[in-house]
Amino acid sequence: MLGKRFSYESRNDWPQIKSWLITRMQPDSSVEGPVADILDKVMKDGDRAVVEYTQKFDCPDFQDSDIRVPADDIKKAHSEVDKNDLDIIHEAADRIRSFHERQKLNSWFVPDQEGAIMGQMVSPVYRAGLYVPGGQGGETPLISSLLMNAIPAIVAGVDSICVVSPPRSDKTISPYILATADILGIDEVYQCGSAWAIAALAYGTETIAHVDMIAGPGNIFVTMAKKMLVGQVGIDMIAGPSEVAVLADHTGRPEYIAADILSQAEHDPLAGTYLICTDQELIDQTRQELKKQTDMLPRSDVAKKALHDWGASFLVPDLKKGFELCNSIAPEHLEICVEDPWSCLHMIRSAGAVFMGNNTPEPVGDYFAGPNHVLPTLTTARFSQALSVQDFQKNISILSSNQKYIEKHGAKIARLARLEGLEAHARSVEQRLDSY
Predict the structure, then answer these.
(1) pTM for this structure?
(2) Which residues are catalytic?
(3) DSSP code for 106
(4) 420 DSSP assignment
């Protein structure tokens, strides 16, 4: 359990830790060639390529007519979902929407006394495509992924939203995904997955209209496709395997910390799990708890490999050094399990999301409370942030200048243009001066 042990007392200890962490960040380039081929084929052949790949990997008898899920099937999915589950989905959606409503930006305009009006107009992208992974052949529907990606787009005011998700072997998508889409008011759902679904969203096919923005997690083929399409279509983020760091003092509870670490370790053999602690005894107790709790998990093999390969404990002399280390790691999820977490908030500089206190486990944020669970990984929280309403919006600069403004500043503007060797720029302004 927690395969590595480190002691961190100063920044001098960081290079050794970084050299270990950085090996987890190396991308797998082996899929780059196959993904490039998929993107090219879908761009050229549209629906035919989507059908061929879906037949090969998901449904042998899949046809063009199966790509779009009929609107009636989306509506009927409610009858196949337990009513209590529907109530939970409704409540989670309401909470997530309430949180994201607070992120909305307003357009603004400022008049200049010299005759100009400057401002910023906030405008949503027109169309967004959301990827929802299949989840073990559709048996574990990733409802939270749909909620977390769709609701910011809805709040942003995106006019057209579609969902793509791999079909099950019987050419259907889990009723939980369809019912959730209906709850959110989304009636455009397509059955396709992996890199060919991302390509269809980016380029468009006969059935799937191209989008302006793609969001949603996926496997390495999905991630590589998104990476290769950066600059051609909006991409939410290039995320890596999940990770959690728990910063604890003597008040931390080992059974809680172990459970929280395992909530990430069960995701993926590459999941990063880090315990940063001021108390050696708590580290030892947590290690024992991990051994006990891991054996009780259905995905214990996955969790054990993640803990062994990418789990570590870090003994720190005090909380100040603990936060210094946390900011260097910049984890996707950061749990603060200390006596007075709110007094430490000012020390946090880099984390995807922060969970305050012993009674705020990371899954509360994953599913229900409201903040988005689409978060930066692999230290990218140093410069990026959670998926938000702003990811589905554009800020368009607005400028209006009148005769008075041109008369006062036109010569200065022309001079700056000529300093850069752009004579036509200068004359564009001077045309207005000459006409007055």
Answers:
(1) 0.94
(2) 332-333
(3) -
(4) T
